[in-house]
Structure formats: C-alpha cells, structure tokens
Amino acid sequence: MIVEVFKTNVAEVELSELLIRQLEDQFPESHINFDMEDCDKILRVEASIIAPEKIIKILNSNGYSCEVLT
Questions:
Q1: Which of 14, 23, 33, 59 has a CA-to-CA distance to 68 between 20 and 30 Å?
Q2: What is the pTM for the complete model shown?
C-alpha cells in the first residue's frame, strides 16, 4: 500500500465527510481520512495506486486548496 498525505484548508467535519465520499467514489479501494486536529487539516490517502493530481483536482473543484505534503 502507498500512503500520500495532503495539506488542505478543509475546516468543517461535515465537509470533510462529503469530500471523503467523493474521493471514495473515484478511489473505491482506498482508505481516506482527514485529521481536522492538525493545523494543516491533513488528508491521508492509503491505496495501492494513488493519483495525487486527481485528488487535488477534486478538492480544488469543491473550492478547497490541496497540495502534497512533503
């Protein structure tokens, strides 16, 4: 499994749950969660194949910033 971590500006739990559902629709075999306690509002994606550009595009299309955390 590959793990990719993203920095976002998603601040509300309800919105994070909506985004997780959208991401799971695109990546059904993945495990996705947000760490809302972290100052970077971390999005963590664990899967056998990860397409960071698609994840970023989904969050951007919903009005949120998202970048790979290095």
A1: 14
A2: 0.94
